[in-house]
Design goal:
Elements (H helix, E strand, L loop, with lengths): L2 H15 L3 H16 L1 H5 L3 H4 L1 H9 L1 H18 L18 E3 L8 H4 L6 E4 L5 E3 L25 H34 L3 H31 L11 H10 L31 H53 L5 H20 L2 H25 L2 H30 L1 H37 L2
Parallel strand pairs: 1-2
Antiparallel strand pairs: 2-3
């Protein structure tokens, strides 16, 4: 029964798409109020008077509370509170500011000397580009994303790749967990052939392709690449496992030989640029592809052949009993009738067993699983897409409403107070109406789809 696990995974996947500690706090407090007032609201007509929508929310108040709590957690991981970041522990970066007047060329020697980030002032607005190798003190931010990314112009590039890979890792983990749950059903119903013919090849197939992708993702996160051009594209790496079988990855660090060399195909090894590591990854990927392909006929043929052999043994056993009964003349009539009834049942069973139908059913099951692993993995990218949309929409509301109001307050405090009061009401209404209700409902439906 997956329900106990879904009670946790559902609000968690919702929170991955809805990750904002501020919005999560509002949702959790609203659900907590419904929980504390459930006796008063549940026994009155106020729930029904609120309409069908409110009745549904009231009925699911506990799951809504979990959704809010998990959103606070993921919001702290994203370091996102109403689109702003919290600098609790201090940034792990030490950017150096450079005043650009337009007379100095904008190149790495002048703008971004070694050991500094590039923060450009004097151009009308401050911009910062965070470079992974520059001005980093070597200690990662203790919890969540470093707040310096909030001011970085390459923030979107960083969070894009981070959330995309994270959604793939979470999706594959949940799919593997779902397949593992099936073994308990096989054991409970004593369908042990399903463990050998379905569960084992399904796990191997999933791990050989997408489990390997998860290993590549974590490896690319951990490994330091001296030359950014040799950081491989994981999508191309996964595709070339099949399209360029036994020949990918095939490039070492050619820039060491020719500094002008650059490969658009980006077929480098994830684990390093030496020839031995490249050959090792190529050999390992070849083995994984062969093993994954062998799992397809394993899922397709083993179970139907087993059922056919088992059926033939039962049929032969029935024919043996029939021959022995015909040879025995001392059998009682009742016993003969009983055996004849058994033979009739065996004959009906033989007529009902269709090997072709078994193969068709198993073929559909095998194709559905193999294609389903690919399509469902891609479907989990909605975690990345909705999380990105929620964060960007929240940031747009902040920049176009509240930040605009604060600008008026700097020029005229009296007028600014009135404008801030009015625009804050507009911002709060849009936050609740669009980000909490509409975006929350969208994330709810997508989380439901993933279950």
């Amino acid at each position: 029964n997956p329900t106990p696990y879904s009670i946790i995974t559902f609000p968690f996947l919702f929170a991955v798409m809805f990750g904002d500690a501020g919005h999560g706090t509002i949702m959790a407090l609203f659900a907590l109020a419904l929980i504390l007032l459930e006796k008063r609201l549940g026994g009155s007509s106020s729930v029904g008077g609120g309409g069908e929508m409110f009745s549904m929310i009231f009925a699911g108040r506990y799951i809504v509370f979990l959704m809010g709590v998990f959103s606070i957690y993921t919001g702290l991981i994203y370091n996102d509170v109403f689109s702003k970041s919290l600098n609790i522990f201090g940034s792990s970066w030490d950017p150096a500011f450079y005043n650009h007047t337009g007379d100095v060329p904008m190149d790495a020697d002048h703008c971004c000397p070694e050991g500094t980030n590039c923060v450009i002032t004097g151009t009308g607005e401050n911009e910062i580009t965070v470079f992974p190798r520059e001005a980093f003190n070597g200690r990662p931010y203790p919890f969540g994303i470093d707040p310096i990314w909030q001011t970085a112009e390459n923030k979107l590039l960083f969070t894009n790749t981070y959330k995309m890979k994270m959604s793939i890792v979470l999706g594959i983990s949940q799919m593997l967990f779902g397949v593992i749950l099936s073994i308990f059903n096989h054991i409970h119903f004593k369908r042990y052939i399903n463990i050998i013919a379905e569960f084992i090849p399904q796990v191997i197939f999933l791990l050989c392709i997408f489990g390997w992708l998860v290993i590549l993702i974590f490896s690319k996160w951990i490994i330091h690449y001296d030359d950014p051009n040799t950081a491989p594209s994981l999508l191309i790496t996964l595709i070339n496992m099949f399209l360029e079988f036994a020949s990918s990855p095939k490039l070492t660090n050619a820039t060491q030989v020719d500094p002008t060399f650059f490969s658009e195909d980006n077929e480098y090894s994830v684990f390093g640029q030496t020839e031995s590591i490249t050959a090792l990854q190529r050999m390992l990927q070849t083995f994984l592809v062969v093993l994954a392909v062998l799992c397809v006929p394993w899922m397709l043929f083993v179970k139907p052949i087993y059922l056919y052999v088992k059926h033939r043994r039962r049929t032969r056993k029935g024919e043996y009993h029939r021959a022995s009964n015909m040879a025995s003349e001392d059998e009682a009539d009742e016993v003969v009738h009983h055996d004849e009834e058994q033979l009739i049942n065996k004959k009906d069973e033989e007529e009902q067993f269709e090997l072709g139908e078994i193969f068709v059913h198993q073929s559909i099951h095998t194709i559905e699983y193999c294609l389903g692993t690919i399509s469902t993995t891609a479907s989990y990218l909605r975690l990345w897409a909705l999380s990105l949309a929620h964060a960007e929409l929240s940031e747009v509301l902040w920049l176009m409403v509240l930040q605009l109001a604060f600008g008026f307050g700097a020029e005229s405090p009296a007028l600014g107070a009135i404008i801030i009061f009015a625009l804050f009401a507009f911002w709060a209404a849009d936050t609740i109406g669009i980000l909490l209700i509409m975006e929350g409902l969208s994330a709810f439906l997508h989380a439901l789809r993933l279950h």
